[in-house]
Structures are given as C-alpha cells and as structure tokens.
Amino acid sequence: MSEQILVFDTTLRDGEQSPGASMNLREKMEVARQLVRLKVDAIEAGFPIASPGDFEAVQAIANEIRGPIIVGLARCMEKDIVAAAEALKKAERSRIHVFLATSKIHMEYKLKKAEAEILRQAVEGVKLAKKYVKDVEFSPEDASRSDPEFLVKVVEAVIDAGASTVNIPDTVGYSTPEEFGKLIAYLNKTVSNINQAVISVHCHNDLGLGVANSISAILNGARQLECTINGIGERAGNASLEEIVMILKTRDDLYKSFTTGIDSRQIMKTSRLVSNLTGIVVQPNKAIVGENAFAHEAGIHQDGVLKKQSTYEIMRPEDVGVQESKLVLGKHSGRHAFRDRLEHLGFDLDADEVNRAFDRFKVLADKKKTIYDEDLVALIEEDLSTIPAVFEMEYINICTGDKTVPTATVRLKRDGKILEDAATGDGPVDASYKAIDRITKLSGKLKDYSLKAVTGGKDALGEVVVKVALNNRLVVGKGTSTDILVASANAYLNAINRYLFLEERRDGIPGL
Ligand code: KIV
Ligand code: ZN
Question: Is 287 domain-assigned?
C-alpha cells in the first residue's frame, strides 16, 4: 500500500515571485482552475499583505475554488495574519502559512533578533493564525542553514502551538540531497511531537538540486512537497512539480511506497498555460515539459523509437498530456523516420522515389535547421512532377547589387556534357534566365512569376512557380530552394525541360 505525498503548489505565490512573472487576477484564476484539474492538494494563492492585488487574488481564489486547500502566506505578524485570514474567509478549506527565519545570518542581519525572540514570535504567530483557521503551516525560513538544535526547538514549539504542517525550506537552494535528507531524518527522529504534524519541504533550485532534495526528503520522512509548475520561482526557481510527479511515477520500482494524487495527463496543459501567462518561456530541453522532451532527431534514435518506443523513451508522452512523440526531421535523421513521415503525410512512394526524395531531403537539411511537413510536401511534389530532365543544373552563380550589372553564370549538364554560359540582365532573375536561354538555345518569355515562402522563419524554403511561353507553348515550371534566386533559375529550367518533354511527346497544350 503506497503512501500519498501531498502536492502543495506555490506557482501563484513563490512562482509569481520570479522576476517579470506577475499575473493579473483573471490570469491567476485561470491557473487556479487548471491546478484543480491537475488535482494538486494545496494551492498557495498569494501573500495577501504584500499588495492589494495579491489580497484580491487570494480572496477570489478562496471564494471560487473548491477541492484543494487554499493557502495564504503571512509573516509572523498580526497585520499579515489578519489579512490572510480575511482573504481566506470564504474558502472551503483554508490554511494560513506563517513563516519566520531561523538561520543565524537571517536572525542577525535581516531580523536583528535573538533566538529567544524568534522562538516566541514563531509561537505567537501560529497561535494567532490558529484563532482564524484550523489548518496552520509554519516555515522556519532558511531552515537548511539554521542550527539544527535550534530548529528542533522551533519546530517542537510551533507544533505545540497548533501547527499541523511544518515546512522545512531550503530557502537559498544551498543544500545537497544527502545533507537535506539527513536534516529531515534528524527532525523526524528528534522533534518529540513530530507525529502531530506533516513534514513538508520547500526546495529552491539555486544549485539545480531542488527536485533531488525534495525526493531525498520524501525518503527521509517528508510527506508534503512544495513546488511550482515549470519550476518557476525566486531566483533559479523552485522544485518543479512535473519533475517530482513523474519521477515518482516513472521510477515506481524505486518509489513504489509513494504516490501523488496528481492527474499527470494535465501536466503539459498546465505548463503551457503558466508559460503563456507569465511570459516565462520553458527551455526546449526542460525535463517533462520542454519542447524537445519527447522529440528525437538522431536517425538511430528515430529508428529505435519507431521499432519500440521504450528504446529511447522512459515515459509515455500521453501520460503527461503530450499527444505523441515527435520525430524531428533534420540532418541527423534517417531513412526510416523520413519514410514514416511521408506515409503520415499520405504519400505512397516506391523505394526509388523514397530514395530520391531522401537524397534531396538531406541536401535541404544541410541548409535548413528545421524541416517542416510543408517543406517535405514541396520537396515530394517537385520530385513527383519531375519530367525527364534534358538539362540538369550543375552550378549557378549570380552577381547582383545596386551598383552592379546583374550577371549570371550558369553551368548545365546535357547527356553528360557540361555546357556553360553567362549573361547580364535587367535583374538577377532575368540574367539567370538569359544565361539558361543561351545554353539551351531556346528563348522563353516569362508570362507569370510567383514566389512564396513554403514555411516560416528566416531560413524558409522559397517556392517559385513560373509560366513560360516557348515557341507557342505555355509551360509551367516549379523550383524550390532556400535561396530564391536559385529557386527562380530551377523553376525556369524545369519549365524548359517540361517544354522539351512535351515537344517530344507532342501532347502539350497547343497554342497560347
Ligand atoms: O523559500 C522560502 O523559504 C519561502 C518560505 C516563505 C516558505 O518561500
Ligand atoms: Zn521559497
């Protein structure tokens, strides 16, 4: 039988303390509603005394949200506690979270108070909060840098005063998993009345150990974890909710005695919402919720995933609300993923067609970071509409500028023979078309020219479609390239090849 670890979400309080992350009331309500869907046990909705906006948000969340405990933060000060109590008045389940620093450095420099006074103020704070709500949590701020013996005294005293949760914060993210685990084990063993309270932890991420410290704390007796969506929070942030939840779920072999009530399928949706509302972008390689967390680019990995997903995936994407893993097509991708993607896009190609398209894809992938589906469609359509090429483009060089006569040098191949010529023109496209005319001994009249970006971004693939009149025949040509001048020349040459093909078959569209 596994024990449930309580998930205390502080995205709306500590998370909102991330520089630039402020949310308005409507946005906070949206996050709170999503946290209900995620099934967190407690929502720390804000610090009511901090600002009228914070008060209003805690009050609105307390008035509407049902299910999780709604928590308001307060210093061990009367005005803070009264404000928190007032904001939480209509909550279905309310908790006041009082905190006071217990480390020497905080007591001496920040609070300028001695241990005895801190002890008294902590007890008074809890007692006062207890007059308003049944559920009181106490945090000895900077606990991990506090004298452990003094910490025991404070924790014991606040439990006696009525705190039902004692939260041990690693406020500055200084602790390590081994050390923090030992501290929790020590408190669990030494605090005489610890069985009357839940041990909670609140780990910051300054050394990147927030999640590891939280897991270590569970193994040593903590039963509530304070965390945030996407790990946002003061400075380097807090332990990330999604990482903690998925560690417990994925490594069930190690942590089978622990579970959470979280509906993990809501994780991605919650992450996106918080990111959009706070403007804090999730790094692509962020565990669980990063854009690349379920994306594979290397050919060997893609091949493995297509054969058996668990070769390179330790979690099922759907378990965190991601529809499916992504095989990103790029220069490291292999033929297997390429063919799979084409099938997804509805192309039914024979082996030769796939091989030809794959070679062209590799050339494109060297020039373009991301290959979108639209790029593939353009690539395949161009290939499928390929008619036997009488002339093949070998090389093109165009010189242009506002003080230069546009000049193009073109090298084509016909029946294995290299033919080269150069021409000037009104513009770079005109120059390249004239050079092609000189080599092919044809003289096309450009009737229509259109250029569009097949995909977005600075490195987008440009697609040029031309209509060319050649000896009373109107032919269409298409070319794509990341360079629009090359795409233009390819389109014109494609039109010429089509003309020669149609002439030979005599089934073209007669007349203009
Ligand atoms: O980091 C911290 O110590 C806090 C407390 C208020 C719990 O955020
Ligand atoms: Zn904090």
Answer: no
Mean pLDDT in the chain? Answer: 93
Whole-number Å distance, alpha carbon 129 to ligand 1 midpoint, is 17
Q: Is 171 in the pocket of ligand 1 (CB under 6 A)?
A: yes
Query: pLDDT tens digit string along 230-241?
Result: 999 999 999 999
Q: What pLDDT is stored for residue 350 in this prediction? A: 79
CA 2 to ligand 2 center in whole angstroms: 28
Give Cα 255 distance to the centre of its chain.
27
**379: pLDDT confidence band, cut at 50, 70 and 90?**
confident
Q: Which residues contact 188 (CB under 8 A, 6 or more apart)?
A: 194, 199, 220, 221
pLDDT at site 376: 83
The count of domains in the chain is 3
204 Cα nearest atom in ligand 1: 1
Same domain, 122 and 271: yes
Q: How many angstroms does the Cα of residue 174 sit away from the middle of ligand 1?
A: 13
Instruction: Give the pLDDT of residue 375.
Output: 79
Give CA separation, 53 vs 57, 65, 273, 315, 476, in Å.
6, 18, 20, 39, 63
**Which of the ligands is closest to the CA of residue 227?**
2
- Residue 415 placed within a domain: yes
Predicted model pTM: 0.76
Please say which residue of 210, 243, 278 terminates a domain: 278
Rounded CA-CA distance 429/170 in Å is 65
Taking the CA of 232 as reference, the closest ligand is 2
- Residue 149 covered by a domain: yes
CA of 4 to the centre of ligand 2 (A): 23
16 lines ligand 1 (CB under 6 A): no
- For ligand 1, pick from 202, 203, 227, 234 the residue to mutate: most ligand atoms within 8 Å of CB: 202
Cα angle value 177/180/186 (rounded, 5°): 135
Residues 396 and 267 in one domain: no
Q: What is the predicted pLDDT for the residue at 386? A: 60
The CA-to-CA distance between both ends of the chain, in Å, stands at: 82
Residue 506 has pLDDT above 70, yes or no: no
**Nearest protein CA to atom 3 of ligand 1, as residue:** 171
Q: What range defines the domain where residue 440 resides?
A: 392-507
Residue 467 · residue 461 · CB < 8 Å: no
Alpha helices in 251-287 (DSSP H): 267-278
Query: Are 405 and 380 in the same domain?
Result: no
Whether 47 is in the pocket of ligand 1, judged by its Cβ within 6 Å, is no
The residue from 384, 404, 424 where one domain ends is 384
Q: What is the mean pLDDT of residues 418-446?
A: 96
Judged by average pLDDT, the poorest of 87-91, 387-391, 401-405, 471-475 is: 471-475
374, 419: one domain? no
- Domain assignment present for 33: yes
